[in-house]
Amino acid sequence: MLQLPYKSQAVAKPYFIAAIGLFVGQILFGLILGLQYVIGDFLFPAIPFNVARMVHTNLLIVWLLFGFMGAAYYLVPEESETELHSPLLAYVLFWVFLIAGVLTVVGYLAVPYATLAEMTGNSLLETMGREFLEQPLPTKVGIVVVALAFLYNIGMTLLKGRKTAISMILLIGLIGLAVLFLFAFYNPSNLVKDKYFWWWVVHLWVEGVWELIMAAILGFVLLRITGVDREVIEKWLYVIVTLALVTGIIGTGHHYYWIGTPGYWQWWGGIFSALEPLPFFAMTVFCFNMVNRRRRQHPNKAATLWALGTGVMAFLGAGVWGFLHTLAPINYYTHGSQITAAHGHLAFFGAYVMVVLTIISYAMPMLRGREVNPERAQVLEMWSFWLMTVSMVFITLFLTAAGILQVWLQRIIPDPQAFMGVQDQLALFYWMRWIAGIVFFIGLGVYIYSFFAKDKPETVPTGEVQPATT
Amino acid sequence: MSAMFTKAMARNMFYGGTVFFILLFLALTFHTIRQIPQRIPGETPSPEVARGKMLWETRNCIGCHTLLGEGAYFAPELGNVYKRRGGEFIKVWIKVQPTKVPGRRQMPQFHFTDQQLDDLVAFLKWTSEINTENWPPNIQG
Ligand code: HEM
Ligand code: HEM
Ligand SMILES: [Fe+2]
């Protein structure tokens, strides 16, 4: 059995397992949504589209948070060169978060949303019913409590140990994540203000503080895998996160074009968000540069592939597909169309799904007491990488095609057509998206199977006498 | 990266840049919040509008529809539905759901009272009168 550098890193393991489990749930509900797009009454009224969608997006966010927390528990002790402040607290928080998450999803599925709102005291403080922030009040409070206790645990570990740039950037990202979530509790009856600050959670997460978390995780994994000088890696990280926040904060303005906020945001938002691909491009260059300059050949090939894949796909999904519709004159036509959905999928997958799968790929073998996975398990994992990545690219391309047609028929031609009529004409693309989704699901199955794959016993060349089996 | 550009310099650039742009963003936010009352119908939303918004949220309408282009893309834009259809149509529409047309996308039945329907329409009317810089491009949303 391989010993972990620090015993307490072991707490990361249940976090990673839960993340993968919830990932499966997310994709199952994605497939339900995809079918409802073309067979409108599929599972209605048992699971209306809005319910399936909440489950799909909330599971995504929750499993990514499990992944981030697992990453922090794995990475911070090793970086700080000390045991985690309280492994017990980490285990307790794991169960609290998992139970809260599962109960919330059960609540979505078991009772009508309005009833859930009533049962959980939404009238005390009205926070529910906004996209991504659908959770009942107790869940939201639970998230804050778990986040605070988690930050305390990580913070105390950092305080007593070595403070590296990697762990500082990770910590700033995690603190930012928790602080910005507090805006989920602000819901004024003025819709414009509500929307304005809603983006402080949503945009400032994915195009702000989460980029710090992502950079720190990538930096950590690349440092271990390539053996490149820490100074070089950490300098890169600071450049990446500077670019992220310098462009991403004012870049929030690309959501302030048409929601009742002043017209000057078309300039502020347009210019700064047009620069938002830069940090993602820097991450791509960083990943390839470090791997090219590697000082050792790390035996975990799958983890290297995930790291490089993250660099490329995050740039495509966030950088290229984000840039596509970020300038105000273009966004005027594409706003809230299937183009948005296409970008949302590739960006979330390429950046945050893949970075979590990168750290899992790197850390999980060691958490299971081996240096690396057996060859066959790695080959299967790499197959799952390609299946999921390529099918997600196709999901994106089909949605982009649907989006272009939608915008054309509904918003550009001289005699614009009504929404529902246009949707009917896009059915072919939605079917193809669904088939690509099935391939994604198969890829996920291969991924999970790879955890249980062992090397086949060496095959014996034919012609030789084989020992009798007993 | 060149040896001239040290890690300490990169770190300072990060902290300095971040603080500067947070402050700039806060200043723009301050200005925007002061402008909003002139861009919405009436200085603040009326009690009916506020109740309508609460109904909109607790039924999770955003889980299928967009509102000013934000939300889900499964069902039509409702930021301008008041202008597209008018208040009476909206109320009747909500009352007769679901259509149960086989294969068609279905909207749930919410069992609203007449008062609640009026509140919802008030909210949608209010929303349709926000100055959105002429978005959406046409009445189809
Ligand atoms: C990993 C980073 C990113 C993620 C996870 C992400 C995700 C998303 C998601 C989920 C939405 C839809 C939000 C909604 O439901 O209304 C969205 C909208 C948008 N994103 Fe991103 N995004 C990322 C980065 C970027 C970047 C770098 C750009 C610009 C270069 C960008 C430009 C946009 C724009 C313009 C919209 C609004 C689309 C509309 O008007 O409907 N995104 N993003
Ligand atoms: C089997 C694969 C998948 C299918 C068929 C699928 C399908 C869908 C559908 C139909 C929607 C609702 C769009 C709407 O509002 O009208 C949706 C939303 C969303 N899904 Fe997926 N999904 C899949 C996988 C994923 C994955 C892997 C991710 C994360 C990387 C993801 C992230 C999201 C996000 C962020 C949204 C909200 C998008 C937005 O607001 O713009 N989905 N998905
Ligand atoms: Fe954004």
Task: Explain the overall architecture.
The complex is a heterodimer of chains A (470) and B (141). Chain A has 470 residues and is an all-alpha fold. Chain A has helices at 12-38, 49-80, 87-110, 113-119, 137-160, 165-181, 191-226, 230-251, 265-274, 277-292, 301-324, 328-334, 338-367, 375-412, 419-425, 427-450. Chain A has two domains: 1-163; 231-450, Cytochrome C Oxidase, Chain A (Up-down Bundle), CATH 1.20.210. Chain A is globular, with a radius of gyration of 23 Å. The two termini of chain A are 29 Å apart. With 141 residues, chain B is mostly helical. Chain B has five helices and two strands. In chain B, strands 1-2 form a two-stranded antiparallel ribbon. In chain B, β1 and β2 form a beta hairpin. The interface between A and B is large, with 79 and 72 residues. The complex binds protoporphyrin IX containing FE (2 copies) and fe (ii) ion (FE2).
Break the fold down into its secondary structure elements and pairings.
The complex is a heterodimer of chains A (470) and B (141).
Chain A: H1 12-38, H2 49-80, H3 87-110, H4 113-119, H5 137-160, H6 165-181, H7 191-226, H8 230-251, H9 265-274, H10 277-292, H11 301-324, H12 328-334, H13 338-367, H14 375-412, H15 419-425, H16 427-450
Helix pairs in contact in A: 1-2, 1-16, 2-3, 2-5, 2-13, 3-5, 5-6, 6-7, 7-8, 7-10, 7-13, 8-9, 8-10, 10-11, 11-13, 11-14, 13-14, 14-16
Chain B: H1 7-35, H2 47-58, E1 66-67, E2 70-71, H3 81-85, H4 87-96, H5 114-128
Antiparallel strand pairs in B: 1-2
Residues 203, 207, 254-255 of chain A line the site of fe (ii) ion.
What is the CATH third-level topology name of the largest domain in chain A? Answer: Cytochrome C Oxidase, Chain A
- What is the H-and-E element order of chain B? HHEEHHH
Distance between the termini of chain A: 29 Å
- Helical segment count of chain A: 16
Shape category of chain A: globular
Helix content of chain A: over 70%
Q: Are any ligands bound, and if so which?
A: protoporphyrin IX containing FE, fe (ii) ion
Oligomer: heterodimer
Kindly report the spatial arrangement of strands forming the biggest sheet of chain B.
Answer: 1-2
Residues in helices of chain B, as a percent range: 40-55%
Structural class of chain A: mainly alpha
- Strand portion of chain B, in percent? under 5%
